[in-house]
Amino acid sequence: MAKSQVSMTVNGKKVEALVEPRMLLIHFLREQLHLTGPHIGCDTSHCGACTVDLDGKSVKSCTMFAVQANGADIRTIEGMAAADGTLHALQEGFREMHGLQCGFCTPGMIMRAYRLLQENRIRPKMKSASASPAICAAARATRTSSKPFNTPPPRSAACRSRRPQNERHDPHLRRTRRKACRAWAASGSASRTSAFVQGKGNYVDDIKLPGMLYGDFTRSPHAHARVKKIDTTKAAAVPGVVAVITAETLKTVNLAWMPTLAGDVQMVLADGKVLFQNQEVAFVIAEDRYTAADAAELVEVEYEGLPCNVDPLKAMSANAPVIREDIKDKKEGAHGRASTPTTSSIGRPETRPRQTMRSPRRTSRSRR
Ligand code: FES
């Protein structure tokens, strides 16, 4: 694919590069500029872990292409601290109060909080029911920071109400919490916290090794179907593709099925049948993620559609389609008849109330 020239300022430095037009900004930042502070936390653009500041706006860098950022001024978590290493007040606030858990999404929270503070929008936003927990965490960190801010610390009623109810009325509890946070800050773990607030946590997705390869799956469009044929020829012929793996490949090394924690077994890649929509059917390994994704689309799979179950109650009826043919006669253990003392006691209670509850899947749009 022809590449496009992009030029932008990232964390105060001019950057020029050739990128594929379809390259996402998050991939450009992470993989070409090695700025691994912004993370990819979802596939659906809802988590905000990838948030960066672009021309004075917060953007999720997974939702725009690098070419769309041509000419832009971008700031990532790596550009928040001063040149001498002094943390930005927001970073200091998060660090001081350990405003994070694993730290994976913390850079996104800090970047979003930074923009909200710049716009002085935290206070009105906090009153809205849609204010995200990320905003609240940021507000708490800013309030407890010892550093000055260019906007007043937020003190909205909604923000206060997010703190434990008893703590608001009990100075002792409040002091205890702050003491615990400061003890954390003084502990050895604080240096890790300091790394997290600067986007320097080293997560699996941040690891880059020489010669590292990328993978992508071909997935089933069917909820239940027999796999009649898989042709990997076209995918394997794509330049940059190293291997295309199917269940047949895995069988040669006795890895086609794996045990589960429930004492069951499951296919690693579809073996003869797919049992649910989006099940992994083939795995492509390539030199870069875009090549892997392209090649995964070229794997040709011939399916024979089978009746599927879409209702859990109907799925229990005697004439429901059998999905797991390999265990259809199994009577004990996982997916078989219960035989433990606990489950047999549950089967003979003095009273047995029954109620059918349905919780339809909804999107935020359908709730409006
Ligand atoms: S990675 Fe989740 S919103 Fe961008």
Structure in a nutshell:
Helix 2 crosses helix 5. The strands form 4 sheets. The chain has a 5-stranded mixed sheet with strand order 2-1-5-3-4, with helices on both faces. Strands 6-12-8 form a 3-stranded antiparallel sheet. The protein has a 3-stranded antiparallel sheet with strand order 11-7-13.
Notable characteristics:
single chain; globular; 17% strand; Aldehyde Oxidoreductase, domain 3; 5-stranded mixed sheet; alpha+beta; Ubiquitin-like (UB roll); 3 domains; 14 helices; 13 strands; 3-stranded antiparallel sheet; 368 residues; binds FE2/S2 (inorganic) cluster
Descriptive overview:
With 368 residues, this protein is of the alpha+beta class. It folds into three domains: 4-79, Roll (Ubiquitin-like (UB roll)), CATH 3.10.20; 89-196, no CATH class; 214-305, Alpha-Beta Complex (Aldehyde Oxidoreductase, domain 3), CATH 3.90.1170.50. The protein is built from 14 helices and 13 strands. The chain has helices at residues 25-32, 89-96, 106-118, 122-126, 133-144, 157-161, 165-168, 171-186, 189-197, 233-236, 247-251, 289-298, 341-346, 364-367; strands spanning 4-10, 13-19, 51-54, 57-60, 73-75, 214-219, 225-231, 241-245, 257-259, 265-267, 273-274, 280-286, 300-305. The protein has a five-stranded mixed beta sheet with strand order 2-1-5-3-4, with helices on both faces. It has a three-stranded antiparallel beta sheet with strand order 6-12-8. The protein has a three-stranded antiparallel beta sheet with strand order 11-7-13. A hairpin with a 2-residue loop joins β1 (4-10) and β2. α3 packs across α5. It is globular and about 70 Å long. The structure holds FE2/S2 (inorganic) cluster. FE2/S2 (inorganic) cluster (FES) binds next to loops. FE2/S2 (inorganic) cluster (FES) binds at residues 40-42, 45-50, 60, 62.
